[in-house]
């Protein structure tokens, strides 16, 4: 009994530092491994009986892979290049002498591996995620097979892709990936347990500090364990382990903080790797989680993104069945309720509803319940409309942590109520450790307690642990560390928990919590409103296409009994759009391969959407459409927006000639145009002696200089000038755009100090349309070193806004192009459209919270107004802007080089518009005109049949926007109408319809009818009452 001899009558350690370092060396991976404990972790080793491989550029299924011809391979070989896949066949033969021992298959390489056994995925292996072992047996029995064949599918990419030189650099296409270890080993679990004990004690000794006696207790225990432990004699280990167990079991007092540890693996749906690789990352990570659950029945794992479940369901059905079992047991916990973890700023209100609708319906169908918490730990800011949308989708709880990345201001709370623009509130929690990828270390649990901003108000917090992005989530070691910390005096209590358990307790403790009103703005990554302009444009256009397809299809459904609403096609297209809203795709922070995928999905939505739109119009307007060989002297014009519109359209005559016509079309309906309407006043265009051009249409009058800049913008009614004396609007400006690190993500405050007005004229302004129904003028500028910009400035008859149709050949590096509109308006706030509403942000930089918002996001319009007058900027595909003092700037194009070196290079086209107005922007119809700019009228050649104009829906109040019309989910005989209050007012509105409605009821955003939600059908329509920014959904059952 050497331990006894060594253990008693030894002198106590005198010196803190030597004791600490002695324990460190005892468990060191670097020093003294010939004689320390770490050197004993593994016993005998044995190479595979044979190793062979085959390589492919495609991601192929197992069945296809194993049928290929495999060639001999060996440890030390390298494979590649980047994005290739190597399949290894590994024949193993376990030595009989290893009976009774724990045997691991150890695999180390710098690619991401998946072990297959008997045609099933069984283990993900990623060195960077500390997963290099597949456990073959915990204790080798004679009966067990000693020979077996495994396959390892090795992806030639790292956890974070293959950035050349830095993580976010564009991928190195030629990287090689090396197999550095493939062998059988004996694993000494008793050594491992002691190593975990000693690591925790050493951390306690170091991190609790010399003022804390627990630090010394931990140190002396660890020192004593080294004394007791003879690394060559495992019979000494239990005594050492008992010493550790004794100190870990000394408990806390009642007041101690409780940490709710939840396993997690944040998997970006695409980022530094393409979507296709994410499917495999999910499988590798989740199979690893399932293995851990088998041996740790208390282990829980929160998993978000319905799209990822759907991928695993269709590509790995065997694994998915195991996941379903663990979901039923409550260990594998679906969270979030959305289709993907989307960007929190740029998707439209309806897109955000669909994220939840597609997500919650998936979770309900697959797992029998919807999610009760919204989960968006990594997204770049959160719209102030989200609380209402969550509440409408069965969610009252929200978890994120990204605001810990704020560059300027520390967010003041970790647990609080978040109140949206309509007053809806959700209980919100930021894990106070400021991470969603913890490793279960002493340092992290101490930080969680120390950092918590709501001390004394709540005594529970979340701790999400596990490697993300293909790192395979939690490890056994993380679990074993936290077991030791479950209730140890000096450390917070750590319990394995679920989001539901945590939030249930926080709800009980919530009486004194603070409330944060308005958006959760991330003071970082503000370039993501602009980067990858084609993705932004794809998003806006496809939102419009799906809106129009749904409106037209729902109208066709309501009017014709034979029309088949394209529900499954629409679901497919919506899911493509929702996938592209993922928080590294829509923000533009992804590699070129992802951009190509995203643009392909948009192309598919445009292609299929156009077909669906044609079918719906054909069904809706069957008798009115032109017969094949018709004369076509009239035109059918359809309006998918809920108000009457009078606009200039372009129609194509029989000989292909384009002519303009002014038309009036009723709300959500159509009209046949034969004789065009004459405008009250035509557009007049004339050139002045100095080369400037004047245009006016009876509503506004503008003067443009030879560089296309506005030198005057007047409202004719009031003769009010919109521009300050001597200032030019529509002024382009170029800024140096070199952030500190996150290239595609960040534009820094200091870029504003590098402003250079664009004044290099290539082609001076000239008249392109002389007036009448439309006047226009165009010009070309040189921008920067090697880019050009051509703009057509268009004024239509009766239009209250001036349009700027812009083409750019963009070929810059680290430059930011904006267009500026100085206005003669004094206001300390500007108003920006967001999802289903708007909000205000300051135009001054008084405090750090104000100037940190030097670049902000918005949707279709922004406005700055003083009493009685204002100027709005509208756009058709831009999301970044600023309003500082009296200058409105629209952010147009960036040119970051990482992670996509080709970002935004090439041809770009976009339109914006300026609209001066009298009165408030609400009363002036800025909101409606921004919709009009984004949702052009549909123009179709028609037969000469007589037909009165037809309107399906109208709303009595201009404050209420009917945003969405679609077939109800699961109710083919009903449609859903979604409306919102857009002015920020309390109002009663009548919804009028000419459709055959049998019954109307209020429903939530998941289309569940509200209790007592029946709405009477009255002469004036359906009476709806709204509070500011309230979103209402109405289910209309149709008479068949
Ligand atoms: Zn992420």
Topology:
Layout lengths: L1 H6 L8 H11 L15 E5 L3 E7 L5 H5 L4 E2 L5 E2 L5 E9 L8 E8 L2 E6 L2 E6 L7 E5 L9 E9 L21 E11 L1 H19 L5 H16 L8 H12 L9 E7 L10 H21 L5 E3 L2 H10 L1 H12 L3 E3 L14 H19 L5 E3 L10 H7 L4 E3 L15 E5 L5 E5 L12 H10 L8 E6 L10 H9 L8 E4 L2 H10 L6 E3 L15 H27 L7 H14 L11 H29 L13 E6 L5 E8 L5 E8 L3 E5 L9 E5 L5 E4 L3 E5 L5 E6 L4 E2 L9 E6 L19 E2 L2 E13 L1 E10 L3 E10 L5 E9 L4 E8 L6 E6 L2 E6 L5 H4 L4 E2 L3 E6 L2 E7 L4 E5 L2 E8 L11 E13 L2 H4 L1 H9 L3 E5 L7 E2 L1 E3 L4 E9 L2 E11 L5 E7 L3 E7 L5 E7 L6 E5 L4 E8 L2
Parallel strand pairs: 12-13, 12-19, 12-20, 13-14, 15-16, 16-18, 17-21
Antiparallel strand pairs: 1-11, 2-3, 2-5, 4-11, 5-10, 6-9, 6-11, 7-8, 7-10, 17-18, 22-25, 22-46, 23-24, 25-47, 26-27, 26-33, 27-28, 28-29, 29-30, 31-32, 31-37, 33-34, 34-35, 35-36, 36-45, 37-44, 38-39, 38-41, 40-43, 41-42, 42-45, 43-44, 48-51, 49-50, 50-55, 51-54, 52-53, 52-55
The structure holds zinc ion (ZN).
Question: Can you tell me about this structure?
Answer:
There is one protein chain. The chain is built from 20 helices and 55 strands. Strands 30-29-28-27-26-33-34-35-36-45-42-41-38-39 form a 14-stranded antiparallel β-sheet. Strands 3-2-5-10-7-8 form a 6-stranded antiparallel β-sheet. It has a 6-stranded antiparallel β-sheet with strand order 32-31-37-44-43-40, with no helix packed on it. A hairpin with a 5-residue loop joins strand 26 and strand 27. It is elongated and about 100 Å long. Residues 1-8 have low confidence and may be disordered. Bound molecules: zinc ion.
